[in-house]
Amino acid sequence: MNPVASTTDSLADLVAGRREDILRRWSARLEPSPPGMSEALQERLQGMIKLVDALVLILRQGAVETWAQGAVWSHAREIGLRRFRSGARVETLVQEYGLLRETLLEVLDTSQRPLRTDELGILWRALDRSLTEAVAHYVQEHEQALRSRELRLQEILDHAPAAIYAKDALGRYLFINHPFETISGHERAAVLGRSDFELFPQETAERFRHNDRRVLAARAPLVFDEEVLQSDGPHLYHTMKFPLPSVAEGEPWALCGVSTDITATRTLRQERDEAREQLQRVLTQLPVVLWAFDTQGVFTLFEGEGVTSTGVPSQGMRGRSVFEVFRDRRDVLEVILRALAGERLSTELYLMGVWFEVRLLPVFDPGGRVVSVSGVSLDITERRRAEQELRTSETRYRLATQATRDIIWDWDLVTDEIHWSDMAPRLLRMDMSRGPPVMDMEWWTASLHPDERERVTHELQQALDSPEGHWQAEYRLRRGDGTWAFVEDRGRVVKDLQGRPVRMVGAMQDVTGRHEAEAEAKRRAEFEQLLIGIVGHDLRNPISAITMAATTLAKREDADPRDQKAVARILSSAERAHRMLRDVLDFTQARLGGGIPMAPRDVDLLDLVRQVVDEVQQAHPDRRLEVDGRGGARLWCDPDRLAQVITNLVNNALAYGDAFCPVRVRLRGQPGTVTLAVKNQGHPIPQDLMPHLFEPLKRAEAREGSRAHGLGLGLFIVKHIVDAHGGRLRVRSNLQDGTTFLVQLPRQPPPRG
């Protein structure tokens, strides 16, 4: 902005020179302010000072239009803002500007100085523009305040528990709060301006419209119960609707409604009524007699379902005296007199052919005197019969526990008491000289063997916490004489209706004799295996000596052919004895739990298979052996042990297979594993032998014309060698395909633990 120079006799100089006079005259034209408003008047004067200064600036700088976007109108916006915040009406703001215009005209008329028309035009346009800015800002602030109040009101109504809404006379929604959105299933924007027929089902909308018309016609608030189908089912709303009259004519132009969801209240009311009806049915259907008599003993009440069991009509007992009815029953009269004396009591009585549990309640007046006796008699005939049967059952139970050697126990989990059968102290060798011994939960826990106490108590707690509630355990229990008994214990948890364990019953059996027999059998088996191992080991030296001597004789060139044949038989027999001895030692090692020793290294299994098959072929020149290998066959293994596996499987295939069919050895390399298959044709392995095929000393009958050599340990040792390599051994055998032994070996066996 570049201010233009003005002459000393310009209109701007005149207004600036007469500013104080202008403000004084303007103040004089205002209505006298009430007491205490001097501060507000001072604020209005400050606004007029800024306005006059702004007019002077505009007159000095030229046309009003050039300052349309400038800060020169900030004074006007401030005046509008202050007037709005002070609570003044917009008419007051216009009045102040009108008084300023009159004051300016008055000062200009009294100045006696010629005024230019263009300067006056700028002055009046600037004044009008300032008024426009002030009024516009006043209105803007007013609208913002209205919107803020509307938002606050909307927020307050949105948090109201009831649905609040307004409709015009045509049924179109003008306002709704958030709970109404839940009722209609639509957001606010989708509801405003629409009618019930666009938001609700036809039947519901017609009911709403009918109620609206009744309110508009009555011109008074009305209350309705309106049902609305919502996503979770029908809801019932208690609704109050009232008309909104127009300001001028007073005719209702709209209505407002407040709807409160009373579905839960209605449900509770229905449940209460149903509970009352159910209670009434219970009181009339239970086998009870409700009765009352006054201080003279006269019945005033005698009814209930239990009356029918007595065979006495209800009306026939009213008005009669209890002393007359029970004159021959001294026990009943004694109870009646005690109740009339003010004692509350309960007892069981046999009345009119029925067993009743009778409860008597004296009723006192404010002075503490008995005015009547009320009571209820419950028919307990069936309960008495059940108690008699229970006593009979308990007798049978006691006889049953005496007839068995099992110790029966019953653990009450609520009181922590344990009830033992009569045989328990005797079987557990408890000291009975000082009376029945204490055999509670603390005693049982302390009697557990220290090495097994934690395990057994943990398993017992797991059974208590489990849904099934079954428990079974074997443990050692200290007898009364200090010795240890091996017991087999089992129990079952009993739970209440809420699923809480309240009781546990079980049976304990002394299996000490069985444990001792098993331990003796185990010691005998270990001794036998140790004896076999010792014998097998000591036989190795003489067999080796025989083999070495026979080998030396076989190498002699001058030997007689008959001697050579005898030496060959000696070598063959020694080799067979050596194989049998090796099988015995391997069997002994496996049975003693040490496992067959291994010395693994990197091996090409295909080369090993060919080598072993060639050796077997030399021993059986009349048989045909075929080897087929595909894929890499290198793996980490013990070659001597696997040679033992291949030899056993191939020799078995030759011994039990058809002599006119070849024995096929197939090797397949897969990622991570190598599979060895040995197959022959012939009679399949008997089905009854298949489950025991890899057990020691088990073998099938050899084919006709051949003889099976060995002790029946070959497949047992093969299985242990394959297991030691982390492999799998399987067998398939049928008449059509023959018999195939499959050995699957990992290329890198898992580390041995």
TrEMBL record:
EC number(s) reported in the record: 2.7.13.3
Pfam families: HATPase_c, HisKA, PAS_3, PAS_4
Domain of life: Bacteria
Chain ranges of the PAC domain: 331-392, 471-523
Parts forming coiled coils: none
Residue intervals of the Histidine kinase domain: 534-749
EC primary class: transferase
InterPro entries given in the database record: HATPase_C_sf (IPR036890), HATPase_dom (IPR003594), His_kinase_dom (IPR005467), HisK_dim/P_dom (IPR003661), HisK_dim/P_sf (IPR036097), PAC (IPR001610), PAS (IPR000014), PAS-assoc_C (IPR000700)
Residue ranges of domain PAS in the record: 149-219
PROSITE patterns assigned: HIS_KIN, PAC, PAS
Catalytic reaction list: ATP + protein L-histidine = ADP + protein N-phospho-L-histidine
Gene3D superfamilies: 1.10.287.130, Histidine kinase-like ATPase, C-terminal domain, PAS domain
Protein's UniProt keywords contain Kinase: yes
Keywords, in A-Z order: Kinase, Phosphoprotein, Transferase
Name assigned to this protein: histidine kinase
Species whose genome carries this gene: Corallococcus caeni
